[in-house]
Design a protein that fits this description.
By secondary structure, the protein is an alpha+beta fold. Helix content is about 40%, strand content about 15%.
């Protein structure tokens, strides 16, 4: 697998790989990292679910980096 390392450098990200790991081992590692706070999503926008059409346009235009969270206002 070839990777353009510049994309990682410019985004200040890390790439961690495991050679020949089983699916169960990868699940165990991910669960461990999540439980220790080692995996944190980058939330770029939080908005009302009423703004869903605009948020979808934003995501489709690639105008967002990270996750978009839509909140529902329960009556």
């Amino acid at each position: 697998m070839q990777i353009d390392i510049r994309r990682f450098y410019l985004r200040h990200t890390r790439l961690i790989g495991i050679h020949n790991a089983s699916k169960s081992y990868l699940k165990e590692v991910i669960n461990f990292m999540v439980s220790r706070g080692g995996v944190k999503p980058f939330i770029s926008k939080v908005a009302s679910i009423k703004d869903a059409p605009a948020l979808h346009e934003l995501m489709e235009s690639r105008g967002v980096v990270g996750k978009v969270v839509m909140l529902h206002e329960w009556d």
